[in-house]
Amino acid sequence: MGFRLPAIIRAKQILQRSPSTGSQTSSGAIDVPKGYLAVYVGENQMKRFVIPVSFLNQPSFRELLTQAEEEFGYDHPMGGLTIPCSQSRFIDVVSCLNHS
């Protein structure tokens, strides 16, 4: 697999980190734009990313979801969708999804 700088740049654009996206509600939570989903990614320290909902149907992203289910089940104290993989692996998966 070759190094694709444009793919990484595009992945970073799609993986808009909150709080730079969305507006803040009265409760202090950050809104997620329509058609997107907030996920928490990381092995030790979680980072919040906003991704398109369409990724949920992709086989490579479903592998990450299966890994999250095996580790956390459906009851996770963080309250959001948490994906227990390295941020670099997550960005690689998203980059591949952008090219398909």
Short descriptors:
alpha+beta; 17% strand; SAUR_fam
List the helices and strands and how they pair.
Blueprint (H helix, E strand, L loop, with lengths): L4 H10 L1 E2 L18 E6 L5 E6 L6 H14 L8 E3 L3 H13 L1
Parallel strand pairs: 2-4
Antiparallel strand pairs: 1-3, 2-3
Helix pairs in contact: 1-3
Brief synopsis:
This protein has 100 residues and is α+β, with helices and mostly antiparallel strands.
Average pLDDT for all residues:
76
Number of folding domains? Answer: 1
Query: Going across the major beta sheet, what is the strand order?
Result: 1-3-2-4
Question: Helix amount, in percent?
Answer: 25-40%
Structural class category: alpha+beta
State Rg.
14 Å
What fraction of residues sit in β-strands? 15-25%
The total of helices stands at 3
Shape: globular
Instruction: Give a short account of the largest sheet.
Output: 4 strands, mixed
Distance from N terminus to C terminus (CA atoms, Å) equals 15 Å
| Element order: H for helix, E for strand | HEEEHEH
> Tally of extended strands?
4
Low-confidence stretches: 16-28
Structure description:
InterPro entries: SAUR_fam. Belongs to the ARG7 family. Pfam families: Auxin_inducible. By secondary structure, the protein is an alpha+beta fold. The chain has one domain. It has 3 helices and 4 strands, in the order H-E-E-E-H-E-H. The chain has helices at about 5-15, 60-70, 85-100, and strands at about 15, 35-40, 45-50, 80-85. A 4-stranded mixed sheet has the order 1-3-2-4. It starts with a helix and ends with a helix. About 10% of the residues are buried. The model is unreliable at about 15-30 (pLDDT under 50).
